[in-house]
Here is the input.
Amino acid sequence: MMWTALDTWIVVAAVLAGATCAMIGSFLVLKKVSMMGDAISHAVLPGIAVAFIITGSRSGPAMLIGAAVVGVLTAVLVHVIHHYSRLEEGASMGVVFTVLFAIGLILIERAAHHVDIHPEHVLFGAVELVPLHLISVFGFGVPRGVILLAFVLLINLSVVTLLFKELRLATFDPELATTLGINATMIHYLLMVLVAMTTVAAFEVVGSILVIAMLIVPGATAWLLTRRLLPFLIVSVAVSVVAAVLGHIAAITVPPLFGYVDTSTAGSMATVLGILFFGALLFAPEQGVVARAIDALRLRLSIGSQDALGLLARAAENTESQTGSLSAAELRGVHRSPFAGHRLKLAAILAFLRVKGSVVFRGGRYHTTERGSEQGREILRSHRLWEQFFFDDGKVRISELHPAADVLEHYTNNDLREDLSERFAGKRTDPQGRPIPGED
Here is the structure.
C-alpha cells in the first residue's frame, strides 16, 4: 500500500464528514426521528440546485443557505402533512422527501449544463476527488471540501456546546423544556437546519445516499454502548472517525486481494460503519446480543438452582436430617416439579450446583451441603411467605397459591423477605399448614 498526500487529504475529508454527521445525527437517533435525516438529505437537493442556478458556482455559503431553507421547509411540510392528513409521520416524510428529491434531480440535471456538478456525485459522493479542488490558505493548498466541512463542524460543535442543556432537555423531554421556558420547537427547527447544512457539506464526500449512514449509524452504535448524552456524543463521533480511517484503508488494500485496483472510499466507510454497528450489537457490555444471552442463561441457572434447592429443602422436612436428599428421577417426579420431562435441564442445573458447592452426589442421590440447605430454606421461606400474602391480602384460593408464589420466590431479595417476615411475624405455618422456615 502506497500512502500519498492525496490519501491524507481524503482521510481528513472523510473524518471531518463523519464527525460532522455523527455529532448532529446523534440527536436524531435520541429524538427517535432518524428518518428525518433521510428525508432532509434527499429533500435539500432543490435548494442546492437553485443555489447553483442562481450563483453559477458551488460556493459553500450559497449551498449552505439553500440547504438550510429547504431543510426547514422539509420539517415544516412533514409536520403540516402529519398534523392535517392524520398520516403517520413516516408516511409524511416519504411524501415530502420523494417529491422534493425528484424536483431536485430535475433541477440538478438542468444546472449541470451550467456548472461543474453531476447527479451521480450528489448521490454517491466523490471523496477521491476532494484533493483536486484546492484553495490557498496562508500559502498552503487546502481542499475546498475540507474547509467547508471544518466550517460546518465548527458550527455544529459551537451550537452543541453553547446549547447543550437546551438540546438535552428538548431531546429527552420537550414538555419539561417548554415548562422551563425553553422553546423546544425552535430547538427542533435549529436541529433541522444543522442537519441540512451538514448534509450539504458532506455531499462532496459521501453523497446524499451514504450521508444517511454517516448521520444515523454512529448514533445507533453509541445507543448500544451508553445512555449518557456526553459519552453518547463522544462514542458516536469516535465511531465515525474510526470508520472513515479504516474505510479508506480498506478501499485501497482489500480490492487488490481480489484482483481489483480499488473501490469507493465512501462505500467502504459505510461498510465499516455497518461492521462496527453489528459488532456493538453482538458484543456491547449491556445491550449486546451476547451479553443478553449470558444474562438470560444466568437467570435460568439461578431460577433452576433455586427450584432444585427448594425441592431438596422440602424433602428435608420429611426427614430428621437438616439436609435434603433426592435422586435425579425423584427430582423430576416430584409433584409440580419444574424439571418434569426436562432430563438435560436438570442435569445441567445439578452440575452447576455441584460446582458451586451447594449439593454433593453420593450413593446415587443428591444431598445438599450446609450451604445448599441454607439456600433451600431461604427459597422455601420466601415461597410460603408469598403464599400467606396472596391468601390473606389477595384472597387467592389455596389451590392457586403455589403457581403465584412459585414465580415471586425467585425475585425476592433479603430486604423484601424481611418485610414479608415482619408483616407475618405471628405466622408459623402457611395457609396449607406447612411450617414457614425460620430466619436461622
